[in-house]
Write a structure and sequence with these properties.
mainly beta; seven-stranded antiparallel sheet; single chain; eight-stranded antiparallel sheet; Jelly Rolls; Immunoglobulin-like; 4 domains; 543 residues
Length: 543
């Protein structure tokens, strides 16, 4: 084990030494900064940290210059020291019941033999976990490169060589990020936006657990007097602690027809350390069980805080979850929210069709037939079919079972109609013999309703057949005895129906002798000429 890690272990074994860094608290909740600071040199940031010293720590310089706190050594003094900030002395520094992201910016502008810590996140002092450190690995004095270390029940992880820099001593600025997600079941370490390590199967830690992120500190790893030039100095620019809020779904009402709308509150956005805001996207899923072991469907990532699932089976309960994604550097996907459930109920779908004769004349009977269907996935209750008597239809009779005449309509109180069930209804009436010739059709509209607001209508149209026939006859106005002349007869169908078995009879006057040249197959029978014309279409005639 390298010397830097030996000293870290020693720190945890000394009860009086709590080595944590802290940041200026802003007291913001949800998807936002729980606490943050820049060391700008004008607000007394170091006064908001506890300081732990062993030995003569006058040999260490902790100053704020420019935009960073600087830790340097005055050689010739025996000192072990650090600044730290934790929830006991500074409540609210770290969320105790939410997931956490911690980001800090650091550099090592000077290099020496012995390592230092430019920032570390740990659990409560004496607890089993520390989560991440931006430090210089002291090793044997030759492996002095920046690295990251972590340790916990899920195992230890140490980077003895820099995986983001090789072959040189890096004096540039870097940003470390540590994510504590799903109550600690998912852990991730990032350097300069690149994920360098991940744990996905750790144990969930309840709110307030001693091993949840609780402290931040920075300091040296020495407990002896370093030789001149052996100290590795560092600068720390900022520290941000974010509370990672999971979106919480609103309890949905029962869905219907295979569709279910769900919605959730928008998580609060917050500035990134660079000043820009995170982009926030959401994803929802539907499952067959509260723990979502059986996922039925998952939405795409979207900016909206609502989504409608479709194609669900009716008459069963589904469970819904949502999560959020911080779109930035580095990206962060929250844990799934707690599930909410909703019953997917069936929906009635009432369908009504109606038929009637295409044509009917005055005095003829019209028989109406209605077919009622529930094409939905649930029973319809309080179903009633109403069929108003159309104008010029009288004497409703032959009502099918259950139908009654109520005022000017035929009514069937169906009651409950099961999903997939159907009923056939009928009645008949007579076309008013005195229907005006201006009426060319009879339109009848029936309606079905239920007690949940579902309805449908059906229409049937019957053409009213109005007969009409005209006959005209012409002859010369004057005649001389013995003069030959012609009678001209014109027959016209003036109605809107085909006339059948049309016959014309024309008696021969006594003063007219020897009638001949009878057209269109007419024949003389005694003293009368007759024509059997057969069918005569509307608006057609015969001359």
């Amino acid at each position: 084990m390298g010397k830097g890690r030996l000293l870290i272990a020693r720190i945890y074994l000394i009860p009086l030494i709590l080595l944590l860094l802290a940041v200026l608290i802003r007291g913001v909740l949800a998807f936002s900064s729980a606490w943050q600071t820049h060391f700008d040199g004008g607000s007394g940031e170091l006064n908001q940290w506890a300081r732990h010293l062993i030995g003569d720590c006058s040999g260490q310089n902790h100053t704020v210059a420019g935009s960073a706190v600087q830790m340097r050594a005055n050689y010739g003094a025996d000192c072990f020291g650090a600044y730290y900030r934790e929830n006991a002395a500074y409540p609210g520094t770290f969320p105790t019941a939410q997931d956490v992201r911690v980001m800090w910016r650091w550099r090592y502008p000077t290099w020496g033999k012995y390592g230092t810590q430019a920032g570390q996140v740990t659990g409560r002092f004496g607890g089993p976990q520390y989560y991440g450190v931006s430090g210089v690995d002291t090793g044997n004095g030759d492996t002095d490169y920046a690295h990251v270390e972590a340790n916990g029940p899920w195992g230890a992880w140490n980077v003895d060589r820099p995986i983001w820099r090789t072959g040189r001593r890096d004096t540039g600025w870097h940003t470390s990020t540590f994510d504590f997600i799903c109550d600690g079941q998912q852990l991730a370490w990032w350097v300069d936006g690149q994920r360098i390590h991940q744990v996905t199967n750790a144990s969930a830690l309840p709110a307030g657990h001693e091993s949840r992120p609780y402290q931040f500190w920075f300091g040296n790893l020495l407990s002896s007097t370093p030789a001149n030039g052996d100290w590795t100095g560092f600068d720390l620019d900022y520290v941000y602690v974010y509370a990672v809020e999971r979106p919480q779904l609103q309890p949905p009402g029962a869905g219907g027809g295979g569709a279910q709308a769900v919605s959730w509150q928008a998580v609060a956005n917050t500035p990134q350390p660079g000043g820009s805001s995170w982009g926030i996207e959401y994803q929802a899923r539907v499952c067959t069980d509260p723990g979502c072991a059986g996922v039925v469907g998952t939405s795409n990532w979207q900016g909206s805080t609502s989504y409608t699932f479709s194609g669900l089976d009716v008459n069963r309960t589904y469970h819904y979850q949502a999560r959020a994604k911080w779109v930035g550097t580095p990206e962060l996907v929250t844990c799934w929210s707690s599930s909410v459930s909703a019953q997917q109920v069936g929906v009635p779908d009432l369908k009504l069709t109606k038929s009637a004769p295409a044509e009917a004349g005055p005095g003829e009977v019209i028989r109406y037939s209605l077919i009622l269907q529930n094409a939905g996935s649930a029973a319809a209750g309080g179903v009633v079919v109403r069929d108003p008597l159309p104008s010029f239809v009288t004497n409703p009779t032959q009502l099918s079972s259950g139908g009654t005449v109520q005022g000017d309509e035929v009514v069937w109180p169906i009651g409950t109609l099961a999903a997939g069930a159907s009923r056939t209804l009928s009645w008949q009436g007579m076309v008013d013999p005195a229907v005006p010739t201006s009426v060319d059709e009879i339109v009848n509209v029936a309606t079905v309703t239920d007690n949940a607001g579902h309805s449908d209508q059906a229409q049937a149209t019957t053409k009213v057949l109005i007969p009409g026939l005209s006959l005209t006859k012409s002859a010369p106005p004057e005649l001389k005895p013995g003069e030959v002349f012609s009678y001209v007869l014109t027959v016209q169908n003036t109605g809107n129906m085909i006339l059948r078995e049309v016959e014309v009879r024309d008696p021969v006057p006594t003063s007219v002798l020897e009638p001949d040249q009878i057209s269109h197959g007419g024949r003389l029978d005694g003293s009368e000429i007759s024509w059997l014309l057969g069918e005569l279409a509307p608006a057609s005639g015969w001359c």
